[in-house]
Amino acid sequence: MDHPHKPNLFIIGAMKSGTSSLHVYLAEHPEIFMCEPKEPSYFVSREDLKTWYPSMEEQGFWKGEERYLALFAAAGTRKIIGESSTSYTKLPQIAGVVERLAAFSPKARFIYIMRDPVERTISHYWHMVRNRDERRDMLTAIRDEPHFREVSHYAMQLAPYFKTWGRESVYTMTTEELSGDPEGSVRRIFAWLGVDQGFMPKSIHTPEHVTPEELRQATGWAGLFQIRQSSLYRAIRPAIPEGVRRFVSSLTRRTVKRREVESDAVKAYLRPIQLEQTRELSAMLGREFPEWKTLDAKGR
After folding, report:
1. 156 lies in which domain range?
2. What gap in Å lies between CA 78 and CA 89, rounded to an integer?
3. How confident is the model at residue 1 (pLDDT cuts 50, 70, 90)?
């Protein structure tokens, strides 16, 4: 017998494409329950979590199904029960997710939101600067670390979901569609989910998790991130005088304004790679993506 509050909807990515906003919009609907925290990443192995998402590894949802299902205990009788984890579409670095999900929920449905791949890749870089102490310059990091480009290879990420659940079980959309027509976009999602299309989220014009213009980028010791992310450091941090924390930060970080960082070379490097990936995606989905302006050199 299935658990009474077993999730049947998964927002699977792509990272830095508006999944946080979409999660909030859906959570407001009276027929939909979306769990908190977002990104439980239950179907990612513990070892991969340690590498790619250490803060969620510490949450410990990987320890057992009951611990994970407890996230949905307050769902009540709502028709749609869901979660959002962008780590479910990060092949090949994070593998095995589809197999674990298929065993757990063979009738699941998925939403996959995609952003102009050049813009998404650059945003991914800034996310890593802000959250994972990425210290390399943008071009070096994106050129040397395939993961930045792989997450934007949408056809590759979608293929195993289509193969396992069928095209009809995966709703695809773009970030640009959501930002350009948020009300129409959520109505179409609600129609696909079979819930009241007349409901409109109050937060519909308030995007979530917008990357700030000014960031602090790591410049010092490469082991600093591991120390700052450790449970021991988090435990003692409140006891460290604020002046000491600021001083250490000043020695190991510099302020960066995103708009002042040259990105033309990065865009020129990414376009031929991601144009080919987008052609593959267009063939898969039977549609073009004229809204992806940065992908086109004329839209720079």
Report:
1. 9-115+145-209
2. 26
3. very low
